[in-house]
Design goal:
The protein contains 25 helices and twelve strands. By secondary structure, the protein is an alpha/beta fold. Helix 9 packs antiparallel against helix 11, helix 9 (196-208) crosses helix 12 and helix 19 (377-387) crosses helix 20.
């Protein structure tokens, strides 16, 4: 049997997690494209048109592009260079500083990578400083640099008032996440601020619509019926594409990526390219664990197509454990524990569903209807041996079971997410609620539901006091008398109303910097105290509110919340000073000791100390 050997598949394979994936670097992409005459994989840059417009204007500003490795800094620089009339051969030469006269007669200097400048070339940074401080200068710059390199570069420039002023300006833009500062002829674009959840669907569309797939049109393994003899690469492509509005795989992956961003983990486009390539081509027995066309034929003939499952490949299961943990995107997605976490309902469906009348409809829809990656011969055989008690069958079946849990996370229909408790298949059981009912609601400037606000306040109260309190309509601030970080705090300091009342409130909102926060306000005249609310902290607070012990669940989150409590107590002290009655000269001292009443609510008892003889 003869199959087509697609140049496109070979090209796409280079983006995956192979030992030498030169294709992931902008400098190497165009050499390969030119040699193979291949259309590149390009996503429209968020800022590209804005950058080009800036340099074409009569009064352009110098620009710094920063971000992590793989965010597209070099790509944007090259596209700007070519759009402004720069030559390809000049861009590809070894010079680190490119020069181009613009239509506005200013000279543009492009520094492709600030860290690669030699000592004798660093003098150009003085010229850069002049262009930033003098809008009428005859030069403008386009500079690419990673965050750390951007700060490090200034240590090699002789310090003076002008240099220090520009360095401080750049540091302020980085820290404050702003693009411009008045008085400086400079813009800073941090490409790491572009969410991977926004880029991923666009990248999927570009890859799926690439004309290279036409190579597969006449392949004997491209069949669209239910036979198990079809190409696993083509099958993965069809599943990623989805039917009509049912694009569950990309939707679920996008949700995971958005949760990663909200948890403070950014994945650059280079990692997203790696992910998509692995999703389509991954197989543990292929060369470099990524399928070529020849590999696909052998895998089909050996009846091992189930190991090419796109659902496993999303999590890097085709790779060795070491390779998986050393690859950012798989290490990050692996923290969700998909496949390792489960629920009784899901496991009962997978193990006993065929013979259980209450679960048989789920088993039919979620397992039997998918004969390629669901009820494939390997899973069915392992399941049969396990149920019949065949010796040594347990480990094989548990491996199959983990793969099926991973598949179910990406195929359970949206209308059954709540019924089957989709997010119990992950480490973060409240992740779905956090994304849809907290972050996305707050992003629309809507109020997060009272039920969620009450659970957050209850979790905070249990950590603040160390007691299993049920109070959820007020925050209870308490200390141990000596310090605020004690595990159990019984000295009542103050309560803060959760609903807005006399200037007090606790709310979940998006702050001025675009961060999701818990904001506690003591009064209109005192600045509010904020705690960034990311996924791990939300899960922690929700679990504590449901009865988990704070210290045992997450030591890091526990300490973060105690730090938040300390900030609240400092702000409380400020309010007390503002409200202090200077005429009260009483020597009497009283304090309130808190305890739980029979309903689990915090009660208090006043203790008075009198120093008068």
């Amino acid at each position: 049997m003869i199959i087509n050997k697609s140049e496109w598949i070979s090209f796409l394979r280079q983006y995956g997690p192979i030992p030498r994936n030169d294709n992931m670097y902008d400098e190497a992409i165009h050499r390969i494209i030119k040699r193979k005459k291949m259309k590149p994989i390009i996503i429209e840059s968020v800022y590209l048109s804005e950058l080009i417009e800036n340099f074409k204007s009569n009064n352009p500003k110098s620009v710094i592009l920063t971000g992590t490795a793989g965010d597209g800094k070099t790509f944007n620089c090259r596209e700007v260079w070519l759009e402004l009339g720069g030559q390809v051969d000049v861009w590809q030469n070894e010079e680190k500083i490119k020069e181009l006269v613009l239509s506005n007669l200013k000279k543009l200097y492009v520094i492709k990578d600030l860290s690669e400048l030699k000592d004798e070339e660093r003098g150009i940074l003085k010229l850069f400083i002049n262009s930033v401080l003098n809008p009428d200068a005859s030069n403008v710059f386009l500079v690419a640099a990673n965050d750390g390199q951007l700060i490090e570069a200034w240590k090699h420039v002789e310090s003076d008032l002008q240099t220090d002023g520009v360095r401080n300006c750049i540091e302020q833009m980085l820290v404050s996440e702003i693009q411009e500062i008045s008085g400086f002829n400079l813009k800073l674009y941090n490409l790491s601020r572009i969410s991977s959840a926004i880029l991923f669907p666009k990248l999927v569309d570009v890859v799926l619509e690439h004309p290279g797939w036409n190579d597969c049109n006449n392949c004997v393994l491209r069949v669209d019926d239910q036979t198990d003899k079809k190409c696993p690469i083509w099958e993965n492509r069809k599943r990623l594409e989805g039917n009509g509005d049912e694009k569950l795989i990309r939707s679920r992956v996008t949700d995971l990526l958005e949760l990663c961003e909200l948890n403070g983990v950014h994945l650059p486009i280079r990692q997203l390219l790696l992910l998509v390539s692995n999703m389509l081509l991954g197989h543990p027995e292929a060369k470099d664990r990524l399928m070529s066309c020849s590999d696909a034929m052998k895998i089909v003939n050996d009846n091992k197509t189930s190991l090419a499952s796109i659902y496993r490949n999303i999590l890097g299961e085709n790779l060795t454990e070491r390779r998986r943990e050393s690859t950012d995107v798989f290490s990050t997605l692996g923290r969700f524990g998909i496949g390792y976490e489960t629920s009784n309902t899901i496991d009962n469906i997978l193990i006993f569903g065929e013979d259980d009348p209450d679960l048989s409809s789920y088993y039919q829809q979620l397992v039997l209807d998918d004969t390629y990656y669901g009820a494939d011969p390997t899973f069915r055989a392992n399941q049969k041996d396990y149920l019949e008690g065949v010796m040594d069958s347990g480990e094989l079946f548990l491996t199959s079971l983990r793969s099926q849990r991973q598949r179910l996370f990406f195929v359970i229909p949206k209308d059954k997410e709540e019924e089957l408790k989709l997010w119990q298949l992950t480490t973060f059981q409240y992740a779905g609620e956090f994304l849809t009912d907290v972050y996305r609601i707050a992003a629309k400037s809507d109020r997060v539901s009272t039920q969620i606000g009450s659970r957050i306040s209850q979790g905070l109260n249990r950590i603040f006091t160390g007691l299993l309190a049920k109070n959820n309509n007020e925050l209870i601030l308490a200390t141990s008398g000596s310090h605020s970080q004690a595990k159990v705090s019984r000295i009542f300091e103050e309560s803060v109303s959760v609903p807005r009342k006399r200037g007090e409130s606790m709310q979940v909102k998006i702050n001025d910097f675009g961060k999701l926060v818990i904001e506690v306000r003591f009064s209109p005249s005192i600045p509010a105290v904020e705690l960034v609310l990311q996924l791990a902290r939300y899960e922690f607070l929700s679990r504590v509110a449901e009865g988990a012990l704070p210290g045992s669940f997450s030591r890091e989150c526990y300490e973060d919340i105690l730090g938040f409590k300390s900030k609240l107590l400092k702000q409380l002290e400020l309010r007390r000073k503002l409200e202090e009655d200077t005429n009260d000269e009483s020597d009497d001292l009283s304090f309130r000791i808190i305890r739980l009443n029979q309903d689990g609510l915090i009660d208090d008892k006043i203790v008075e100390v009198n120093y008068n003889e």
